[in-house]
Design brief:
Layout lengths: L8 H14 L8 H19 L3 H5 L12 H4 L9 E4 L7 H5 L17 E5 L2 E11 L2 E9 L2 H8 L2
Antiparallel strand pairs: 1-2, 2-3, 3-4
Helix pairs in contact: 1-2
Keywords: Bacterial flagellum, Cell membrane, Cell projection, Chemotaxis, Cilium, Flagellar rotation, Flagellum, Membrane
Membrane topology: Peripheral membrane protein
Protein name: Flagellar motor switch protein FliN
Length: about 160
């Protein structure tokens, strides 16, 4: 005899159908036959109460609207964000910090000519290079950072 955990639902339905054709009611001594009969009753009750439940639980993907419609973006267009450009970073001790004076020089981990990090609200979003326009500093965006690159940059 087969273990009940190895029987497919289709096989159980076939077994119940064969038993019904023979007109045999499950014997009280046969727990397997009782379980099959009970399963059939439960399935009939579920199908009678909620036909096609599986189809209505999940909406089809084709019916979904685009995530961000242009009209929805208008609501956030005037929210201010903080943009900053980072030349480089360094770690110093509190003793070194207290020794700083006017004219002190700190070595940063950024190299000369290396692209600078452009941060929005402290999140890296792009890299760029410094430009001077009408005696003012500016930054030219040279690369937009992909999400996977953002994770790598955070780890440095």
């Amino acid at each position: 005899m087969t273990d009940s955990s190895q029987i497919e639902p289709q096989e159980a339905d076939d077994w119940a159908s064969a038993m019904a054709e023979q007109g045999a009611e499950p014997a009280i001594d046969d727990p397997w036959a009782m379980a099959l009969a009970e399963q059939g009753e439960v399935q009939e009750a579920v199908e009678g109460v909620a036909p096609g439940v599986g189809a209505s639980v999940f909406k089809p993907l084709a019916a979904l609207q685009p995530v961000a419609a242009p009209r929805e973006l208008e609501m956030i267009m005037d929210i201010p964000v903080k943009l900053s450009v980072e030349l480089g970073r360094t770690r110093i001790t509190i003793k070194q910090l207290l020794e700083l004076a006017q004219g002190s020089v700190l070595a940063l981990d950024g190299l000369a000519g290396e692209p600078m990090d452009i941060l929005i609200n402290s999140y890296l979003i792009a890299q760029g290079e410094v430009v001077v326009v009408d005696e003012r500093y500016g930054i030219r965006i040279t690369e937009i950072i992909t999400p996977s690159e953002r994770v790598q940059k955070l780890n440095r």
